[in-house]
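pinging the channel bc i need a second pair of eyes. not urgent but kinda urgent?? the chain im working w is below, pasted from the shared doc
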Amino acid sequence: MIYTVTLNPALDYFMTYDEIELGSVNRSGTTRMSPGGKGIMESQMLNIMGTENTALGFIGGFSGKFIRDDLQRKGIKTAFTVTLAESRINVKVKTTTAETSLDAVGPELTEDDIENFLTSFEQLTTNDIVVFAGTAPISLGDDFYIHLIHIVKRRQANFAIDIDGQKLLETLCQTPIVIKPNKEELEGIFSVKFAKKEDIFPYGKKMLDMGAQNVIVSMAGEGALLFTGKKCYFAPPVKGIIKNSVGAGDATVAGFLAEWSKTRDPVKSFKQGIACGSAKVFSEDMPSINFVKRCYQQINIEELLI
């Protein structure tokens, strides 16, 4: 079983405009609501790929009920911890020239909430994978992910992690299955600038040396790199019209793990991850399995000398 962990889920409210004028009344063209949060996005992509998974995290109030009901309607298993505090609502504004995200800070969680949540990990086995993704509510503190990873390792389960910054590096000694920083995040982590993909090679290898089993570095329109073992692979960008980039990285991680959970083949998993991420970018909402397959057919993985 794959378990996705979203500590700070959101109800994402999407609004489209031709343009936005600050300080004035702006009337949207279309609106829609969707469950948000990195782990939840991964659960939805895993479900599309036919990979059984369970969504974990904290939910509360109207927005939390919407998140749970929507996922269950799509056939996704959930085992959320219900809180008195309301789950956050994020507003995603899209114009003809830009996408802007207005994200809320998240709920204040109690000690009882946290203790109830930790019971979710009691059933883990060596066959399970836990995916930690996204930000944590401030009330959980800076080291909560580290605490959860230690619980997973004690249960001899595996984990993947998709978080930002130096906190990501602190988890690598626990040997995550895969991490997926993008080029800009990697520049921030190591205080460098990359002019070309070859500049990334030493840092991909460094994160492997630090403990990561597989490292995917996405480079937006320039494609993506996979570092695994002593090898590096390159996936050129898939061609298509960008419709909604929200959740593309989450879809990539989910696609990777959907294949990894079956084959343990990093290159096949990389190709599947890039197909899922690309299909997500080229879709207004979540892509269909047929569209993922069409994107997959466009991908030719190249081995690079490093």
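so The chain is about 35% helix and 25% strand. and The domain at 1-19+30-163 is CATH 3.40.1190.20 (UDP-N-acetylmuramoyl-L-alanine:D-glutamate ligase). — does that match what u expected or am i reading it wrong
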